[in-house]
């Protein structure tokens, strides 16, 4: 591992608090009544109910969404037998992935026990705690006995990730790679290095998919697993022992179509790969160092299709693509186990997902070349938000159809929607925006470049390669604060700085500002003074001049002042004459876009129309269909005051301007969300589903509702997104967190890319 990454990884684990997970209560505990309910005496009622009916544990406790990630530390990644304590960071890591990708809670359980029989007893005794068991990094051959016994003894899903998780991803990758090289699974020859947990399970699944057992040869530490070998054999290896004279990995690689490496780093040479058949498929999956690095393969075989277990090369074949989603599907139907049908459903869904047309958001995120099914894109990327919504329902359906579901899902469409809502809540849907930003780095100017929140965000922006920061601020102050905050970036080389006290471009900046403002009462002297003292003006001018591609400001100062500066310098979009602010709330119930939270105090009906159309376009930009509610205290004509009339008129105008837009009003907020309530009061509404774009009658209503929901509802907030500017510019508020700054930077960068491609299209 490179020193820089190693250092960053240690820092990541160490601070701000040790480790990667913590436990958070899901119920309020603020009053003595809460205490009486959560603990004695109230808790006894829950216990008594479970004692009468054990199935009630699923309703009374967190068990049904709780998975035990269990190891004894005997085969940790490719690091080998490093013991249960050293395995803990890996298990915490699996816990984080379960939670982030699939909202599954995890206790990581590291057990100091090597005897498989005792290990089985210990894990089986944990049954009352968990809804599922994910066995991890337990070495072969013991892992086979442990998994088989636990499957038998426990009435919950037990899944050895290194066996079946890996096998599922390998099967999907091989299926797709074979399609690309136009070879038949029934004909191809495979050489494997590694006859352990991952190796045996991968081969079993490939055989199930049609690979001939006689076309497979395996090697391990002792060399080729041949018929008659006695040294280091076990019954599982014996199933793949072949009648061959070959004794080394180099020999068995000659002429084969596929190499499957699930053993140890660096054990394969370029020479060995050179001897493989034409268009070889090389799966070098040992972690963290693959059996051979991709550049070494390409040096000798440019025609090869390559996959590794790592995230820094194309085609990451890693069980993270499987375990969160297969458990999500299994837990959601109360499956008693994870059977072959569920595993095969996962293989097919994964293989198909790569070939499926992608959503506009994902397309923008990964770029044409990466997203197009081909040698560089064999299987989905771990952050692909479609994984959860495609794999979990496929697994759930297979569980129902194969008869292992104790709580079958009746409405799969509603289930899919629930999963989508989770993605929004976690901010995973922001991830594609990050990846799009990375594809073509844009320069984003930060007006308040000396502020701590900005400097901390800049560190993440640089680490994640989201944008090239342009900081408006005094270089000495920036350098001092970077040092004081313990940040790692070098202000002299990693960012660009515009010094408001002295910059060689000062003359060009103030003359541009003067030319824009001379008929708004700004004299040359005033222009100079404003450009010297208003960092948001400098940021806007740098975007106008093309020194930056977008800007972020607003951490300090009044929102409305910044709006005016941006209007003066950058201007509004072609054809439009209004700007507005759209804020996003990711809540337990769903994702809601709220406007106008910042700009127009009391917009007219005509302005409401413009705001709604701009906001609807932005919602589409996030890959969602806008469902618009025009909000009011009035419910479909129940009041007749000016504000109610305004929203009614806005509806009429909107229906003329955008007849296809799903919009209705005027209606109260609860009716916008609660479809049943709406149906009772106004059965003929044009809006059939819960609204996701809430257009408020006044800024006051929008601002108050948004902030209240954000704080009380503990919602994830994105924004405010400034709509209607001629170039990307976003004004944050003093409450913005580091994450919000990074999110908005990524968004501004992607908007700059879109603007550039629109411009290029126009120029053509
Ligand atoms: N990308 C992914 O998703 C995954 C990758 N892996 C990786 O696969 C590897 C094996 O994991 P797992 O199956 O769980 O571990 P096991 O300990 O169960 O099996 C390891 C196998 O690799 C063989 N092996 C180890 N070192 C060498 C060597 N130097 N030369 C030849 N063979 C060797 C062992 O041989 P012997 O039998 O003689 O001891 C054994 O057959 C690890 O690197 C792990 O990180 C695992 C799971 C998922
Ligand atoms: C990815 C994984 O589970 C491993 O390498 O062991
Ligand atoms: Mg593992």
TrEMBL record:
It catalyses: oxaloacetate + H(+) = pyruvate + CO2; (S)-malate + NADP(+) = pyruvate + CO2 + NADPH. This is NADP-dependent malic enzyme. Pfam families: malic (PF00390), Malic_M (PF03949), PTA_PTB (PF01515). NADP(+) binds at residues 76-83. SUPFAM superfamilies: Aminoacid dehydrogenase-like, N-terminal domain, Isocitrate/Isopropylmalate dehydrogenase-like, NAD(P)-binding Rossmann-fold domains. CDD domains: NAD_bind_2_malic_enz. Its cofactor is Mg(2+); Mn(2+). Residues 18-151 form the Malic enzyme N-terminal domain. One of its GO terms (molecular function) is NAD binding. It comes from Marinihelvus fidelis. Its EC number is 1.1.1.40. The active site is at residue 94.
């Amino acid at each position: 591992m490179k020193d820089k990454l190693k250092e960053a990884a240690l820092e990541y684990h160490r601070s701000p608090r040790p480790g990667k997970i913590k436990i958070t209560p899901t119920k309020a505990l603020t009053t003595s009544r809460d205490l009486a309910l959560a603990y004695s005496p109230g808790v006894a009622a829950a216990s008594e109910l479970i004692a009468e009916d054990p199935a009630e544990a699923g309703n009374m406790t967190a068990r049904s969404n709780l998975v035990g990630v269990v190891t004894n530390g005997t085969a940790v990644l490719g690091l080998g037998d490093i013991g249960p304590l050293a395995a803990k960071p890996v298990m915490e890591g699996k816990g984080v992935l379960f939670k982030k990708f699939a909202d599954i809670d995890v206790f990581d359980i590291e057990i100091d026990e090597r005897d498989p029989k005792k290990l089985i007893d210990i894990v089986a005794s944990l049954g009352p705690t968990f809804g599922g068991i994910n066995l991890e990094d337990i070495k072969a051959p013991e892992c086979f006995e442990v998994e088989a016994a636990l499957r038998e003894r426990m009435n919950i899903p037990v899944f050895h990730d290194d066996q079946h998780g890996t096998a599922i991803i390998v099967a999907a990758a091989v299926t797709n790679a074979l399609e690309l090289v136009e070879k038949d699974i029934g004909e191809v020859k495979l050489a494997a290095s590694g006859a352990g947990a991952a190796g045996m399970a991968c081969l079993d699944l490939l055989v199930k998919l049609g690979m001939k057992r006689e076309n497979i040869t395996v090697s391990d530490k002792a060399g080729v697993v041949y018929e008659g070998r006695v040294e280091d054999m076990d019954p599982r290896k014996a199933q793949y022992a072949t009648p061959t004279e070959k004794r080394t990995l180099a020999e068995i690689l000659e002429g084969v179509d596929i190499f499957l490496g699930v053993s140890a780093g660096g054990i394969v040479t370029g020479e060995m790969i050179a001897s493989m058949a034409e268009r070889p498929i090389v799966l070098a999956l040992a972690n963290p160092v693959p059996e051979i690095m991709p550049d070494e393969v390409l040096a000798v075989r440019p025609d090869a299709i390559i996959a590794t277990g790592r995230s820094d090369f194309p085609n990451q074949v890693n069980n993270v693509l499987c375990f969160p989603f297969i458990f999500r599907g299994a837990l959601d139907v109360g499956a008693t186990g994870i059977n072959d049908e569920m595993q095969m459903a996962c293989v097919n869904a994964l293989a198909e997902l790569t070939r499926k047309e992608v959503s506009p958001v994902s397309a923008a995120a990964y770029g044409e070349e990466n997203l197009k099914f081909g040698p560089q894109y064999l299987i989905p990327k771990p952050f692909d938000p479609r994984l959860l919504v495609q794999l979990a329902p496929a697994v759930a359906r297979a569980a129902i159809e194969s008869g292992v579901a104790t709580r079958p899902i009746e409405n799969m469409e509603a289930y899919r929607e629930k999963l989508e809502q989770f993605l929004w809540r976690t901010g995973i849907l922001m991830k594609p925006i990050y990846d799009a930003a990375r594809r073509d780095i844009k320069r984003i100017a930060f007006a308040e470049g000396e502020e701590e929140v900005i400097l901390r965000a800049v560190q993440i922006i640089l680490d994640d390669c989201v944008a090239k920061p342009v900081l408006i601020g005094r270089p000495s102050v920036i350098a001092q604060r970077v040092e004081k905050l313990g940040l790692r970036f070098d202000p002299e080389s990693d960012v660009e700085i515009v010094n408001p006290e002295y910059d060689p471009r000062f003359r060009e900046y103030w003359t541009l500002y003067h030319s824009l403002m001379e008929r708004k009462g700004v004299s040359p002297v005033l222009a100079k003074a404003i450009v010297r003292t208003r960092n948001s003006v400098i940021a806007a001018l740098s975007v106008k001049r093309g020194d930056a591609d977008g800007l972020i400001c607003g951490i300090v100062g009044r929102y409305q002042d910044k709006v005016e500066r941006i209007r003066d310098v950058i201007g509004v979009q072609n054809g439009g004459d209004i700007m507005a602010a759209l804020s996003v709330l990711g809540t337990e119930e769903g994702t809601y876009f709220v406007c106008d939270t910042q700009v127009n105090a009391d917009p007219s009906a005509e302005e409401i129309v413009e705001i709604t159309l701009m906001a609807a376009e932005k919602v589409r930009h996030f890959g969602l269909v806008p469902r618009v509610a025009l909000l009011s205290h009035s419910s479909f004509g129940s009041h007749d005051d000016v504000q109610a009339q305004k929203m009614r008129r806005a509806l009429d105008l909107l229906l003329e301007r955008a007849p296809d837009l799903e919009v209705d009003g005027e209606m109260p907020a609860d009716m916008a969300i609660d479809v049943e309530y709406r149906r009772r009061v106004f059965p003929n509404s044009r809006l059939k589903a819960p609204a996701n774009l809430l257009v408020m009658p006044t800024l006051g209503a929008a601002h108050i509702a948004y902030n209240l929901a954000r704080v009380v509802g503990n919602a994830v907030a994105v924004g405010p997104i400034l709509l209607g500017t001629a170039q990307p510019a976003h004004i944050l508020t003093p409450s913005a967190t580091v994450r919000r700054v990074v999110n908005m930077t990524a968004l501004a960068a992607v908007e700059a890319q879109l603007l550039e491609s629109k411009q290029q299209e126009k120029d053509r």
